[in-house]
Amino acid sequence: MGDKSQIRKLKQSEHPPMLSEIPQPPKELYLEGELPDYTQHKFLAVVGSRKFSRYGKEVCQALITGLKGHNVVIVSGLALGIDAIAHQSALDAELKTIAVPGSGLDRKVLHPRTNHKLADEIVRSGGALLSEFEPLMPAGLHTFPQRNRIMVGMSHAVLLIEAAERSGTLITARLTTEYNRELLAVPHDITRVTAQGVNQFIKLGATVVTSSSDILTALGIESEQNPEQQKLDLASLSKDEQKVVELLSADPLPRDELLAKLKLDISKANVLLSAMELKDIIKEELGDIRLVAWS
After folding, report:
1. CA 120, CA 82: separation in Å to the nearest integer?
2. What is residue 103's predicted lDDT score, i.e. its pLDDT?
3. Of 186, 203, 225, which marks where a domain is finished?
4. DSSP per residue over 30-53, as a string?
């Protein structure tokens, strides 16, 4: 995997078409793997902190899992943290994913080295690695902001998971608004550093995302068509998730009562319930939590 014979320079006509809309589009692009058909797919860039929280990880996994069954391509930067979680979640959900690293694609320089196995799996699964840098170009401080414009430019929308007040993720968010792409943001605990940047963009008008169906709506996809959202597969749930379903199977419960019956650490329980709500398994209304009606 990753030798020069598998990395090819794209013709201009093969470039992702939306890249032509941005200022200073890349003159050259190198590809390993296959680019999904733009006429058949919606492209969602997922960005977030390298130093992610458990909440951020759970949210990223849950939101992408909820996109299963739709022609959505997950674009991210192959970095440690939320990027890698987004790529892996896409693979687990059988979605195509594209990695845009801040380096060339040859495995001698591909950054970060710890994600080489993930890069190989992305290509094997029918996705792609994409870069404007020569195959043997190593990563540098300037290469990451440069690649961010490609991630944003080739995507229909950008999902912001976690970001500190001053971070590269926020550069990507600003590019999203400059390029007239849809900026989606997951609200976060206001006491955490990684919440400050995201909540700042929500204040400025980013679309708030609290479920996978919010993403589908932003991409212009009817969430009702999602086969994964028509029937609850208990076998696919964790033991804790199954316990929540069992407790709510008869009637809705107030949050405090449900938390007491779960007998979990309070922060772990709240993360669990948030993730289940993002997966459209449960819903909280007027203080009560109920199972979503699955047809």
Report:
1. 18
2. 98
3. 225
4. EEEE-PPPTTT-EEEEEE--SS--
